[in-house]
Amino acid sequence: MTRTILTVLAIALVVGLGIGGGTALGRNIAPAREDTPYVMAVLPTGQFPVSFQGALANATSDPLPDGNHSVVFSIYNPAVSSTPIWQETQTVTTIDGKFSALLGLITSLNPTLFANELTTYIGVKVGADPEMSPRFRVAYAPYALNSLQAFTAKSADALDCSGCILEGHMGFDSTGPAGPKGDQGNSGEQGLIGPQGVNGNAGPQGAKGDTGSQGISGPQGPKGDAGPQGLTGDKGNKGDVGPEGPQGVQGPAGQGGLKAVFTTGSTASVNESQAVGIEYSDIPDMSIDVSLDEQSTLEITGHVEIYGTAIPANSDSVFVRVRADNSTIQQEIKLAITYDDAIRQTVFVPLSHFVSLPSGNHTLKVQWFIRGDPGDGFRLVSLSRMMNIAVY
């Protein structure tokens, strides 16, 4: 939206403010009441336009383009009032930003709007712009100012009218001779600027002017298509070492310190008779009860040494697993042990695993199991075994 600036050239009341006693606008003025000390003028009816002239410019003080513009004129009393006491919309024609309008030709103006002392203001709104601020105060024209004396004149009832022209003296003899022509009167004051006249016809085409100076460069054109890949250039020299990069983010907190260590095991030979295909059973001396005050990480290490000559021929493998309560926490370790009475085969099974357990009491143990075809009983023999549990 372009903000419009208005410079007021002139505001003139065509009716003037000629309000007072005696004769106003060709009509007789009578007192309002016998007991009224001040006399108000009796104004004629009809249109009483107000001439309003101004110049319209944009926010950079350049005149608006020549042409027609919609303007809303409003009259307020007092200046801060939000509701106009009179309003009309006109289309004004500007030339070099200047315009002239007669207010009251569309919506009649009542002269009593200007009866109060200088408290009347005109607001102007151009197009879609908000009404200009501040509003323009309506002032008296010099000769109309003299009519203010009517507000201080006393009632004519108290005047001595001896020698006044009476109603019966108003007759004239139209046949009497004409008197000599009087001298030329003095020139009157300059009248108000009249409204803007209509545009005249266009003048003839002027001569061709000189060639103007070189204009400014136009905007950058669009980027063209990429050309074909050029040949690979020679390898450049090794560049300098770049600056040190910023400090990396801090890594997650590590495990807490060691809280407790539990150990169990034995080097004494133990054996357990099982039938092939029976469920897991506990390895003797390989069970530890742990009590935790909080969620903790447990590291389980150790070994189980199994003596292979006790494995019967109808089995195909031995399994070892670590259990916490009723859950397997380490994958089963399958041991393929070939049966041969002539060979004393021993298998060393290492234990290495981490597990996180909640607070409370837990039982951790190592179990074994032999799988094969059902048959006679057999013996699982362990020559040595050990389990260590570190709590973090």
Name the helix and strand elements from N-terminus to C-terminus, one letter apiece. EEEEEEEEEHEEEEEEEEEE
Structural class: mainly beta
Mean of pLDDT: 77
Oligomer: single chain
The shape is elongated
Low-confidence stretches: 13-44
Fraction of residues in H or I helices: under 10%
Q: Give the number of DSSP strands.
A: 19
Radius of gyration: 59 Å
- Tally of alpha and pi helices: 1
Q: Report, as a whole number of angstroms, the end-to-end distance.
A: 73 Å
User: How many strands, what sense, and barrel or not for the largest sheet?
Assistant: 5 strands, antiparallel
Strand residue percentage: 35-45%
Explain what this protein looks like in three dimensions.
This protein is an all-beta fold and 392 residues long. The protein is built from one helix and 19 strands. It has one helix at residues 142-145; strands at residues 5-13, 23-24, 27-28, 50-57, 67-76, 86-94, 98-103, 121-126, 136-137, 260-266, 270-275, 281-292, 296-307, 315-324, 327-328, 333-335, 346-357, 360-372, 377-391. Strands 10, 11, 13, 17 and 19 form a five-stranded antiparallel sheet that branches. Strands 12, 14, 15, 16 and 18 form a five-stranded antiparallel sheet that branches. Strands 6-5-8-9 form a four-stranded antiparallel sheet, with no helix packed on it. Strand 2 (23-24) and strand 3 form a beta hairpin. The model is unreliable at 13-44 (pLDDT under 50).
